[in-house]
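Step 1: inspect the first sequence and its tokens.
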Amino acid sequence: MEMMNEDPGALIPELALLAAAVLGLLAGAWLPRHRQWLIAALAGVACVVGIIATGVVYTRPAETVFGSYAIDSTTNATRLIVLVATLLAVCASVEAVRGQRRETEYWVLLLLGALGAVLMAGATDLLLLFAAFLLASIPLYALVGWARSAPATEAAMKYYLSGAFAGVTMVTGVTLLYAAGRATAYGPLRENLTAAAAGGRSMPALAAVGLVAVLAGLAFKAGAAPAHFWVPDVSDGAPAPVAGIVTTLPKIGALVAVFRLLPAAIPAAAVAWPLLVAILAAVSMTLGNLAAFFQTSVQRLLGYSAVSQVGYVLMAVAVAGRSAQAGPALLLYLAAYALTNLGAFAVAAAVTTPDGPARTVDDFRGLARRHPALAAALVVCLLGLVGTPPTAVFLGKLAVFTAAVDGGMAWLTVLALVNTVASLFYYLRWIAPVFVPAPEAGATAPQRTRPWATVAAVAAAVATLILGIGAGVVVPLLLAP
């Protein structure tokens, strides 16, 4: 049974992110441009403090803080995933940000976006969920347009307009759910909707409309179909580190939020949400893979890949409450995806050509000969996104597929297997040029790499291998009280 308290000490990871963002913004206004790297160091320290604080309280009994924020194994695992992902993002961004006029703002926006993702995962009230949705959205709109290039500005505008529409839709859904269930807290909302369904009243129909609207907002944050249209454009238009951030951090928070919301607040007898989520999963994985087949821009390819990956994760959400393996499978997959996706984007950020950052698959020709460590990291991350052993995504997919079968959705598992095999094609289209000799001269040859982004890529690749091999130790932690 969960305990309830109002102790801010239970929120040290969240407070560390918030404090670093506020202090960073204030300090950055006074620091000279050549010393603004200190804000990046502050962001890294905040992440380390959050990781340590989460580890200290990881095995404590579940509790609810301030009546609307759950601290349990799911929230703690999400904290760790987001904080580690944020550290990788900081490392991958150093060269792209250093010396820029708005360097401080970059790190502050990143910290606030990470905080929003964590809060979405722990919210147990619709009002807090929507507030966290905004916190995970607005800073990232600005982050996408941070570089102020024409592609980044266009991507930021598309992201903002899509987010504005999704936000209005979501708040409408929250209003309708409140009208149907007379509560915004998940527990009372479920009780009231169950009573309405048992009494034969029309409230479940109103709740169904409200739920679809709320899911539309969360699907936007996760990049799931049909709210996925912004993902490839933003991934292609934003700088590679930013694209990695927006396709990773908010996705983690949104998917955990859906997993927590549906079984806790919406009775399946009132609204058939498992089938709805299963359909979203099937459409996301299929559309994402089909659209990625003939992409030549590596960041656009990874954008469509991110859409397909959401489909696999939603399989665990579809069987939430029907399979005990759904929760651990979801968290394991998200941890694996965060490492591999950020690793792939870090490679894209690390490789440059005479014309600027590498953009197309041909820009990576000869990478294996010139920079073998970076090429190895790319191969590990891309094959990891397919789900090749011994990477962590392989075990994540295995866990998700097992949970789906256990939850009575074997048909969805078959479709996911077909999509997994098909996805190998477009990942190999990027891997193959890496081992093709580059011309002696020409803009397509990788000329140099960025050291910090290279470190992030190699670290992510090593981490996904370690997580894949050591999953037997990790999975029991996901089941902690």
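Step 2: inspect the second sequence and its tokens, then contrast the two.
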Amino acid sequence: MTNSFPTWIRLARSHASVLMQPLVEAVVTMFAVLATLGCTLAIAAGSGPAVLAVVLTLSLSRSHLDRDLRGRLEAALVLPLVGLVAIGVGMLLRQLPWVGALTFVAGMFVSIWLRNFGSMARRAGHLIALPFVTLLTVPHVRAAANGVLPPMLVPIVVALLSLLWVTVFHVVARRLGLLPPLTAPAPTAATPGQESRLRPTASTRMAIQMAVALSLSFVVGYQCFAERWAWIVLTAFIVHSGNRGRLDVAYKSGLRVLGAAAGTVLAMSLSFHAQASPINTGLWILAALFFGVWLRPLGYAWWALFVTLALALLQGFEPQPPGMLLWQRLEEILIGAVIGLASAWFVWPVRSTDVLRRRLADALAAMAEATDPATPERSPARVAKTLDELAGMAAPFRAARRFTQGFRTVQPADWVDTLLACRTAAIEVIARGETPGRLRQAIGAARKSLREPDTLLPALQQLRQTLDG
């Protein structure tokens, strides 16, 4: 008991530090949501524009398209056009469902495929995807006819309002020191001979996988679930978003099902208290979104739970009994997850270990550059960024390690944990401007071992020992 007490203290402090920054980000995001929502309700009646305002604000806050003046101008120019396209797709989904589904699939394919063409095309893909995600949450977003603005202009104005308030609150929070300053995305280092052998490229494969998953979801949804097809399509979309390979999709599929099940059950209990009051329902939805944004860094299951809770409260349980809808929605979520998993596993699959080795290569390349005496300006910023990206891939591999311990001799999760353990020492060395020869040799040996899984872990362990020394 005496020895375990300091451990508990350290764990509590660690969790507190992990939660504090996401808490600040969640508060800033919800202020932007409330400001956008207030302006939207003042100019447009109906629930459609309000939902559009909330979804766009959450998406823009997370994607950081307001990173700089150029990003804001690009978003301000493209968002109105994208909003008009969303109106057209929404009308097609309502009046010509199969044509709308085909257009929806094509739009999502293009938004992912554009990642092949540089950072500007990647940002354009993010903007294209925003309204399509909104259509999944509420398929027929449209404004009431008695609003201040013509219904055709409402999505355009709402999109610009969301961009305005996200920018305002992010800038203010950074000026006050509540949020860290955003830096320009660092160019990723090329991995010799690794990505060039992948044909089609990873982005193209993921775009094709998304298109297949969405197509199957629309077919199954339209044929078997009539008006409730959106839950299947939404789940297939979610498990493929940010696809980092087969293992990542399998991991998110499981968390999506578990989180959605818990969220639906929780929504069932809340609906009995909230269904008589739209105001109470709205407050529960905003609270669910806040906790989802805050706790998302701790695990995807939290996000799935609270987003499902918000969607269930938004769409309501009428006119069917809650118990029947509970099982229906869980069934649709499970079907969507299975479709998404099958698409990732059998349609030009991307191995998660290949994606992981690319992230390891990027991190080691950043370390090599930052410790190279020939580099004129050495900064730990890029090293920290690549290690953050590597940490974002860790959860599925750690989960796989729990189930395969003793059956597999090579555990990719060990690669991740060993290199992440080098973070503090590496950043300190780089910040002091040191370029030790032994450290450069250890980094070079680890980079050479990337092609040999059996030797990679010893090389990374040697790198850690060198840094600790």
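Step 3: confirm your contrast with the notes below.
Residues 153 and 359 are 43 Å apart (CA to CA). DSSP finds 19 helices and no strands in the chain.
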